[in-house]
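Homework help board

Subject: predicted structure for assignment chain

Our instructor gave us this sequence and asked us to write out the predicted structure in token form, then describe one feature. I got the tokens but I'm not sure how to describe them. Can anyone check?
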Amino acid sequence: MDDDAEGSATVTTMSATRRILRRQGMPPREIRAILAAGDPLVVRRLLELHRERLEEWLEEQRRSLATLERSLAAADNPSSAERVLG
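My token output:
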């Protein structure tokens, strides 16, 4: 592969990486740090931190959905619904 093709592939990879991370809600500052990092360990750590945030967000969404499910299931029993929604 010649230098131009290799450079073009790198730009394409960086663009795809930026787009994917942005879609996942990674802060722009962290995306820039990943794209600028020369150390794979730094990249790995930043991705781990982002993964942890996504997992925490997902768990919070699951809890919210479970609360909603309980309140809807208790809709036939108003006193139960009041306890769930507290």
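Reply (TA_rk): Your tokens look well-formed. For the description, you could write something like this. The radius of gyration is 22 Å. That's the kind of observation they're looking for.
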